[in-house]
Amino acid sequence: MARFTEIFEDVTKKGVKIPSNLYLDTGLYPIIDQGQSAIAGYTNKADGLFFDVPAIIFGDHTRIFKYVEKPCFLGADGVKLLKAKKPNANHKYLYYALCNADIPNTGYNRHFKWLKEVDIPEYSEEEQEDIVLKLDKISHLIALRKRQLSKLDELVKSRFVEMFGDPVSNPKKWNVCRIREFADVRIGPFGSLLHKEDYIQGGHPLVNPSHMINGKIVPDNDLTLSESKYKELGVYKLRPNDIVIARRGEIGRCALVESQGSFCGTGSM
Q1: Nearest of 261, 257, 259 to residue 269 by alpha carbon
Q2: Shortest CA distance to 54 belongs to which of 78, 89, 79, 29?
Q3: Other CB atoms closer than 10 Å to residue 13's CB: what's the count?
Q4: pTM over 0.85
Q5: Each residue of 163-221: pLDDT tens digit?
Q6: Based on C-alpha coordinates, what's the Rg of the chain?
Q7: Three-state DSSP string of 68-107
Q8: Helix, strand, or coil here: 160?
Q9: Stretch (H or E) spanning 143
Q10: For residue 54, cis peptide bond before it (omega within 30 degrees of 0)
């Protein structure tokens, strides 16, 4: 095993960050940020393009890793750009090793300090290549499955428009009102209310946008709160038929609470 700091160098300063308001839908060069999408946007500017690929990008807030094999720019916030210190290192193997690393989820905080404590298994070059080959095949199957689910999600949205019309133009003239007129809207709790000592193993699950998958909540057993903090934040307890919506990061992601649980929201929702 080798410590992360023995293998990697933080080269974030060598990458140029592009403000999100300058992202293009299409362009010559990709912009990689810490969100779920592989590519956040594009730019046509070439000055400052990071050419030293392959490399690995780590989302300091989201704990998401991305393998980068084409020259790129960085998203504006929360991105760490990593390169192996050893020449000709197998970055794809290192990427998979990092994806499997145990990094505690402390909400919308920075996690790089935890990443630096990670140990990475050391294998021969041949073993690393074999691991990459097998995991690439598995990753391809997972990508196909996600694409299928995305198409099904599009079908649901299409059926909604077919039945009720475009919610923006409202061609069927449905009565319109603000959410607050028929629902109790609550935001939070914000990260300032949560501290490292509040997170424990086997406590009350805390929900953030990354736990909302295909309209359902899939809690993380590593992100749970102590009994005292849970009671303090009891006003944020989620109940059956509550709807949670992300307002940071993956904006618009939502899920329906289907069963009674001891979940609390976060400042991202």
Answers
A1: 257
A2: 89
A3: 7
A4: no
A5: 999 988 999 999 988 888 888 888 776 666 777 777 787 888 888 777 776 677 777 77
A6: 21
A7: ECCCEEEECCCEEEEEECCCCCCHHHHHHHHHCCCCCCCC
A8: helix
A9: helix 125-164
A10: yes
